[in-house]
Amino acid sequence: MIIGVPKEIKNNENRVALTPAGTQELVKNGHTVFVQSMAGAGSGFSDEQYTLAGAQIINNAAEVFAKAEMIIKVKEPIEQEYKLIRKDQLIFTYFHFASYEPLTNAMVESGATCLAYETVERSDRSLPLLIPMSEVAGRMSIQEGAKYLEKPLKGRGILLGGVPGVKPAKVLVLGGGVVGTNAAKIAAGMGADVTIMDINLDRLRYLDDVMPKNVHTMISNDYNVRELVKDHDLIIGGVLIPGAKAPKLITRDMLKTMRPGTVLVDVAVDQGGCIETCKPTTHEDPTFIIDDVVHYCVANMPGAVPYTSTLALTNATLPYAVRLANKGWKKACSESAELRNGLNVVNGDIVYKAVADAFNLPYTDVKKYL
Ligand SMILES: NC(=O)c1ccc[n+]([C@@H]2O[C@H](COP(=O)([O-])OP(=O)(O)OC[C@H]3O[C@@H](n4cnc5c(N)ncnc54)[C@H](O)[C@@H]3O)[C@@H](O)[C@H]2O)c1
């Protein structure tokens, strides 16, 4: 198969979808790999490293898209890429369709096959291609939150871990999944007083077992959220309903009840956000303030630590990419429910229910194509 790796062009996105090691693996399996010049530069990989691994370097994105049967990317295509995607091409990347209708419409019109990293799902409901980025974003949410709690950055001016004789900051983590667990772990390690909320009692039981003593658990409901936001310094949004828009757990009216300088980090912003007042921001301008509450809502947090993120992401995506390249998407998806769950759009049809429902668009059973 001919595989294309374009350079990511989303604001401050420095990750790349394939490393030289991954290139070597695909070439070893008999495939041709075209990498756009400088695609790996932001993650520390030179064109020469890709060439040595067996890739052919191409100067512009249009040519990469034109040549490739399968495009491997990191972020969803943005407007200037829509027109480069063609019918019957396989696009393997993060899409997060439910949060952006124009992207959904563009991919429906393109006729391409869109296999979304974020909905590849195992039988135990875990999301193997979301996990590594959630691990990065969860850990990073505390690093960023701690920074924006500093007074010059408009925060409350509180040190996460406190000092002897002074209480630590209070951190509230909404969602005890991968983002939430990694956030809680780092916050706890820094000495904060941490509470994790989830609707899944079994998950809370597990977290209660494995987390250190400064992490508490609480069931998530509107009453409890309203109470806790009043005295927490840093609030992390990490809830997810797979493939669907995130539920709004923090509503506009709650901001007035928070203390000035409270920091909200809505990691779930890529699924529409679980904080009503959050709108996607970029690494160039990551925060905004409403009612004296600092909002950090960067939709591609791992993009700021590309070295870690690229390696973490490609460790997880490569085995799937090799399978798709070796068998073609139809055979690979027929044989594997895990990969089949990743199919969101095929030949102009939306084959992922939650995406169709998000925009009241028609849904087609994927069986039509397999
Ligand atoms: N901004 C970024 O750069 C970035 C990076 C990685 C992941 N994410 C996003 O972070 C979000 C969380 O990802 P994850 O991997 O942790 O998901 P996950 O499935 O591991 O965890 C989500 C948790 O939310 C819980 N939940 C659902 N509804 C809830 C509610 N009403 N109250 C409390 N908890 C609730 C679930 O029970 C689950 O435990 C996703 O939207 C993901 O796309 C964003």
TrEMBL record:
Its EC number is 1.4.1.1. It comes from the Bacteria. Pfam families: AlaDh_PNT_C, AlaDh_PNT_N. Residues 4-137 form the Alanine dehydrogenase/pyridine nucleotide transhydrogenase N-terminal domain. Keywords: NAD, Oxidoreductase. InterPro entries: Ala_DH, Ala_DH/PNT_CS2, AlaDH/PNT_N, AlaDH/PNT_NAD(H)-bd, NAD(P)-bd_dom_sf. Residues 149-297 form the Alanine dehydrogenase/pyridine nucleotide transhydrogenase NAD(H)-binding domain. It catalyses: L-alanine + NAD(+) + H2O = pyruvate + NH4(+) + NADH + H(+). GO terms for molecular function: alanine dehydrogenase activity. The keyword RNA-binding does not apply. The keyword NAD applies. It is an enzyme of class 1 (oxidoreductase). PANTHER family: ALANINE DEHYDROGENASE (PTHR42795:SF1). Belongs to the AlaDH/PNT family. This is Alanine dehydrogenase. It comes from Chryseosolibacter indicus.
